[in-house]
Design a protein that fits this description.
P-loop_NTPase, Rossmann fold, 2 domains, 5-stranded parallel β-sheet, 14 strands, 6-stranded mixed β-sheet, AAA_14, DUF4143, alpha/beta
Length: 463
């Protein structure tokens, strides 16, 4: 049995969300959101500890998990802020070791059992995927002395996908997935768009006009969600993305996989970026990347394990027997996707030759919703809908109690009744199960388009 992965909040979420809201307010009241003093991290650069840091709304979930679970896992892509969050939560008394440091890496591989027993208090191990043998050692340590908050580990890969780790973690660990910074985290405002969307009450959307224009959204897309490139511009930002993907392709994939065609993985990533939010046609990707079609699935799984891409499964649920079953695939960070496509905000301006804006906007919304699911009160899953007659909805959200909402994305600054065709189909077929349908656009106006249908600016996701 897999451990609970808190991408969604299940069971009775209200006490947790109440506590989470209290902690979020406390975080906002602190000087520069967080100010961390006196914590030294073995094998890591501590210069960032003196800076003011953005709030991370997943923090309350990490603290909650530490209070009742022996092993807490924070996992997500490299450079999304896992180590920083772990250090903030752990406090100055915890022992923190990074497996990116050669001495720690060698010691962990030499004697995993001794390595995990180096502290009687909370032990924080950063980049655990580099030495998977530590998972078994932690399992043995927990079986001998089981208590909450014994280990806090971070990983730049989905540990459940690493052979041999699932059984060791089952019943002993909980995972909090940390994505890049959401727009709400950047503005200091906790988002609840998913809860409002699935409420079925259009007034709950808090609809109001926006202030951002198309060019502003294009800048947001190209900046992405990784903390570091958000502080850079132009060539320096491009250099960060280039080095980031280069490091993953030359080091991280080698740590995790022995697939035959790893040398062709960079080409596959570039192809996925060029087709971000498109349907996954395996034959085409296989042909263009040089990876045999029969061998393609493990390469896609590897990229998902590294939190570089995610797949959006098709949703149809007996509405129409002609529903297509292919998933959509997109990069989780639009800044990285834009860089791999060599597109800039200027290149996506009206009248330009690039048509990348539509796919990047759809990837952006899917990623923002995925981030919000970490702290949303409503547990839901994300899908897309398309039938062979051309009816489609870019993102379908279905809650655990089977309420359904739909979101369409447009790169234009205005919408028309025809843009709601797919949403109307879902509304009429699902009747009372259908909560709300929204078409997001790059303009500023919020406009109702009939029963449970709204046109909203993209900024409604976080304002």
């Amino acid at each position: 049995m897999r451990q609970r992965i808190r991408e969604t909040v299940t069971a009775n979420p209200r006490p947790l969300l109440s506590e989470s809201a209290r902690r979020t307010q406390r975080i906002r009241d602190e000087c520069h959101i967080y100010a961390v003093h006196g914590l030294r991290v073995m094998g890591m650069d501590n210069s960032s500890l003196s800076r003011g840091l953005r709030p991370r709304f997943a923090r309350a979930l990490v603290e909650e998990t530490l209070s009742d679970t022996p092993i807490t896992v924070i996992q997500g892509a490299r450079q999304v802020g896992k180590s920083t969050l772990a250090r903030v939560v752990a406090g100055p008394q915890a022992r923190v070791v990074s497996l990116d440091a050669a001495a720690n890496y060698n010691a962990a591989r030499t004697d995993p059992d001794a390595f995990v027993r180096q502290s009687d208090d909370l032990l924080v191990i950063d980049e655990i995927q580099r030495v998977p043998e530590l998972i078994r050692a932690m399992k043995d340590a927990v079986e001998q002395t089981r208590r909450p908050g014994r280990f806090l580990i971070t990983g730049s890969a989905n540990l459940l996908e690493i052979p041999g780790t699932e059984e060791s973690l089952a019943g002993r660990a909980e995972t909090v997935v940390l994505y890049g910074l959401s727009q709400g985290e950047l503005s200091g405002q906790r988002e609840d768009f998913i809860d409002r969307l699935l409420s079925g009450d259009g007034k709950a959307l808090g609809v109001r006009t926006g202030t951002l224009r198309r060019q502003d959204y294009l800048e947001i897309l190209c900046a992405g969600s990784y903390p570091e490139p958000l502080t850079r511009q132009g060539r320096r930002r491009n250099a960060w993305f280039d080095n980031y993907i280069g490091r993953i392709m030359t080091r991280d994939v080698q740590d995790l996989s022995r697939l035959t065609h790893l040398d062709r993985l960079p080409d596959l990533v570039r192809l996925l970026a060029a087709n971000t939010s498109g349907e996954l046609v395996k034959a085409r990707f296989a042909q263009d990347s040089g990876i045999p079609e029969s061998s393609l699935p493990p390469y896609l799984e590897l990229l998902e394990t590294l939190y570089l891409i995610h797949q959006l499964p098709a949703w149809g649920e007996d509405l129409n027997k002609r529903v297509t079953g292919r998933p959509k695939v997109s990069l989780l960070d639009t800044g990285l996707a834009a860089r791999l496509n060599h597109v800039t905000p200027a290149a996506m301006a009206p009248g330009s030759v690039s048509d990348a804006a539509g796919g990047l906007l759809e990837s952006f919304v899917a990623a923002e919703l995925r981030r919000q699911l970490v702290w949303a009160e409503t547990s839901a899953r994300l899908f897309h809908f398309r039938d062979r007659n051309g009816l489609e909805v870019d993102i379908v959200l279905e809650s655990d109690d089977r309420r359904v909402a739909g979101v369409e994305m447009k790169a234009a600054g205005s919408v028309s009744g025809g843009d709601f065709k797919g949403l109307r189909f879902l509304r009429d077929k699902l009747k009372d199960r259908f909560s709300l349908g929204v078409v997001l656009h790059t303009g500023t106006e919020a406009v109702p388009f009939g029963d449970r249908l709204w046109a909203l600016p993209y900024s409604a996701l976080w304002t």
